[in-house]
Amino acid sequence: MPRRARPICQSLMEGSVVTSYANIVLCLLAVGAGLSSAVQQILNANLKADLGSPWWAGLVSFATGTLVMFIVAVLSGSPWSSGAGVQKLPLVSWAGGVFGAIFIGTTIVLTPRLGVAAVLALIVVGQMLGGLVFDHVGLLGIPQHPATAVRILGAIVLIVGAVMIGR
């Protein structure tokens, strides 16, 4: 059975000041990742225009990201995974790259047509709806977070905001 996790607001209000500040820093890192996603969309759309193909632009984006992750992995000092360990991975473990390719390809094609804000708003709606369901059922072993009325209302407000941004 999936384990239950505490909501972030509860985590921020409980515990030591250091723990609260650490959670705030983590929240700010998540916001920074969101900002980097907006920049990534613009750069990838420009790359598509330069290369004449969304698919080659996506490949260049993934190759660059792979190189950066390789450098970070090497510099982190983390031990290399054994071949046997990689072979034992469940098939679903490899799907993250497929979803990453769908994400990158979609944003490269849609950003010039809809604009960065509209594409990001629609992506966030999809992420929020998926996230609510995945959290509620504890999909793939993630901690459960029930889809409460407040969380569902938040998703509705987000959807309304996305519609407003898209106009």
Whole-number average pLDDT? 86
Distance between the termini: 43 Å
Number of strands: 0
Low-confidence stretches: none
* Estimated structural class: mainly alpha
Strand content: under 5%
Helix content: over 70%
Shape: globular
In angstroms, what is the radius of gyration?
A: 19 Å
Count of helical regions: 7
Order of helices and strands: HHHHHHH
Largest sheet: none
TL;DR of this structure?
The chain is an all-alpha fold and 167 residues long. Helices cover 77% and strands 0% of the residues.
Structural overview:
The structure is a single chain. The protein is 77% helix and 0% strand. By secondary structure, the chain is mostly helical. The model has no long low-confidence stretch (mean pLDDT 86).
Structural features:
167 residues; 7 helices; globular
Topology:
Elements: H1 8-13, H2 17-51, H3 54-76, H4 83-87, H5 95-114, H6 116-137, H7 149-166
